[in-house]
Amino acid sequence: MRNIYNSFFTFLLIAFCACDSNQPKSEIETFSRSDFKEQIQLKGSPIELPGIFRPRRIKVIPEANLVIILESQASEFFASVFSLDSMKFKQRLIKNGYGEGEQLSPMSLQYISSEKRIYVFDHLLQSMFFYSTDSIIKGSDGRANGVYKNPKAQLTSNTNSKIVLNPIITEGNHHIVSVATSLNHESLHLLDIYDQTFNFLYPKGQYPMLKDTFPKYAYREIFLGNLSNPQPNLVIFSHYNTDILSVFDTSGKHIISKQGPDIHKPDFSIINAQGGKTIAPGKKSYLCYMPSVRSINNKLLTLYSGNLISSRNENGTELFLFSESLDPEKYYKLDKKIFDYDIDINKGYLYGLSTENRPHVVVYKL
Are 279 and 217 in contact (CB under 8 A)? Predict the structure, then answer.
């Protein structure tokens, strides 16, 4: 089974000094399932994905009539392109290799409609590649049309070097926003902000304000999460192993955080690894908000899992719709398990990725 969460820990090596943090001690606002104004049951229709074996991410692009499925492993290509209207296979994308426009470890699919570009971050190469939908429609060779190269472009355990992790490009100011590496000389922070050349601009963002305190070196792994830019003016941090959602503007200024629906406390363990110590999820860790947050009519939609990490089960059957200030609005209960999703906003369809029994897409009408 594909395990997105564990794949990140493969690269998170010996980190930072074991000192106490100055993280503020307080609790954040919470919500429960009963706080949602509407509760709706949804029944989905499965669509087969022949030739797909280890799906990781899905991207729906209605204006280009495209669906892209990213896989976690590849022999020649990491992604497959389908027609949205028929779900018929069109071509392969994201060429595996060391050549120009080729990638080694693609981790994400981000589409910016104003540019007609799909951005794909490569974790090993620490660089952001982009693919033009126009070139895909015409029939590309699967290689990227361009790349924002990170001049350091390598993973390192050097405590004086930053690692770019789970980044996005903000549509508003075109900065690259990454989960932070808080170096020893820096204050504890959640986000690292870079320009397009991966020149570090400034640290920003505060970790969730819980009463618990943790060693400084452990915060990134304890509060590891996924970044998304569902609206041009917003950045959302979805936490993996605690059920917290945090909203920022594109400069990294915190707007609001809320926790729910199960109020899972972070849990971690310290293990020996490669001659040192590293952080791993604890026995009580949960898989919470794994995929990116999507936008529907200026509302925020997210998928919730809520499974123990030891189960290795990233699937979920609960979708939460919030206002921009994270006020609960609609609760959707799905009849089938999915682990990632995207939306055809024009027609109101949700396309969910599932590996229950076999890789396939489940289509829901919202």
Answer: yes
Please tell me the predicted confidence (pLDDT) of residue 218: 78
Q: What does the alpha-carbon distance between residue 116 and residue 145 come to, in Å, rounded to a whole number?
A: 12
Alpha-carbon gap, residue 290 to 168, rounded angstroms: 15
Whether 221 contacts 239, CB under 8 Å: no
The predicted model gives 262-275 an average pLDDT of 83
Q: Give the C-alpha separation, 160 to 248, whole Å.
A: 27
Higher pLDDT, 283 or 143: 143
Quote the pLDDT of residue 19: 38
Owner of token pair 């990725």: 353
Q: Is 33 in contact with 52 (CB distance < 8 Å)? A: no
Global confidence as pTM:
0.89
Q: Is 165 strand, coil or helix?
A: strand
Helix, strand, coil shares of the chain, percent, nearest 5, are 10, 45, 50
Q: Which of 3-7, 40-44, 242-246, 323-327 has the lowest mean pLDDT?
A: 3-7
327: how many CB neighbours lie within 10 A of its CB?
A: 16
